[in-house]
Design goal:
There is one protein chain. By secondary structure, the protein is of the alpha/beta class. The protein is globular, with a radius of gyration of 19 Å. 40% of the residues lie in helices and 15% in strands. The mean pLDDT is 96. It folds into two domains: 84 residues, Leucine Dehydrogenase, chain A, domain 1 (Rossmann fold), CATH 3.40.50.10860; 124 residues, NAD(P)-binding Rossmann-like Domain (Rossmann fold, 3-Layer(aba) Sandwich). It is built from ten helices and ten strands.
Length: 278
């Protein structure tokens, strides 16, 4: 269907563009990924990031640590990478073991190398509309909207979910693009009524098919950030894709929508950090 926003294609085009630019550089951009423990999903995510780096011509340093690592040892590892001139981006794969303060570790990463865009300084710059390294998923959504020819300016936008990783920075991205933004959280009253007013809906709540077709007005743009595994092993997003695709002017599938954009944007951020590190 013409209204499907193909994240896989947009991400591939972005990765190819990055790979061509990397060929012109004096050295490959370097991304270090720290993986603590044996969480299966984290191992898959890290592997996908490593493959994307290799494909783009980056230097990839995967650092595996035992789940028994102390917080101080992990912070020392981050310090070592902060001081390494050949490492432009540092990513600590979440979740971390419970005995480690994730916020303390993320804040230890240099803002110049914080390619996840999670540290307070980079979030603060996004809040002030002076972005440097931006959270990858929201930035990837903005790239998708631009690629699909969607102008956010003046549009009514509803973000469902208020996490620090997606919801809050997503709202700021849309606001910086001069959209009018409503954020819905678990305590929001009558979410459906608010969504029905939206020209652009971004769903990131982690609840399968939470957004129903009768919530979406005809011609809206629907971005599904969620990815949920059902009892039968299949994947679905946070919106009822099959029902909504008949009404939406543009909609992202799951899988193959926002997910590929997150990794492509991570590479984009690492290239940005490389340039700042010259």
């Amino acid at each position: 269907m013409d209204n499907i926003i193909d994240g896989k294609k947009i991400a591939k085009d972005l990765r190819n563009k990055i790979a061509e630019e990397v060929k012109t550089l004096d050295r490959p951009p370097g991304l270090a990924v720290i993986l603590v423990g044996e969480d299966p999903a984290s191992r898959v995510y890290v592997r996908n990031k490593e493959l994307a780096c290799i494909e783009a011509g980056f230097y990839s340093d995967k650092i595996k640590k035992s789940e028994n690592i102390t917080e101080k040892e992990l912070l020392d590892e981050v310090d070592r990478l902060n001081d390494n001139p050949n490492i432009d981006g540092i990513l600590v794969q979440l979740p971390l073991p419970k005995h480690i303060d994730s916020n303390k570790v993320l804040e230890r990463i240099s803002p110049l190398k914080d390619v996840d865009g999670f540290c307070s300084e980079n979030i603060g710059k996004l809040m002030q509309n002076k972005p440097y390294l931006r959270p990858c998923t929201p930035q990837g959504v903005m790239t998708m909207l631009a690629s699909a020819g969607v102008d956010v300016m003046g549009k009514d936008c509803v973000v469902i979910g208020a996490s620090n990783i997606v919801g809050r920075p997503m709202a700021m991205e849309l606001l910086n693009a001069r959209g009018t933004v409503t954020i819905c959280n678990s305590k929001t009253q009558d979410v459906a009524a608010k969504v029905r007013q939206a020209d652009i809906v971004v769903a990131g709540v982690g609840i399968p098919k939470f957004v129903k077709a009768d919530w979406i007005k005809d011609g809206a743009i629907v971005i599904d950030v969620g990815i949920n595994r059902l009892d039968d092993g299949t994947l679905c997003g946070d919106v009822d894709f099959d029902a909504i695709k008949e009404k939406a002017a543009g909609i992202t599938p799951v899988p193959g929508g926002v997910g590929p954009m997150t990794i492509a944007t991570l590479l984009e951020n690492t290239l940005t950090a490389y340039k700042a590190n010259l």
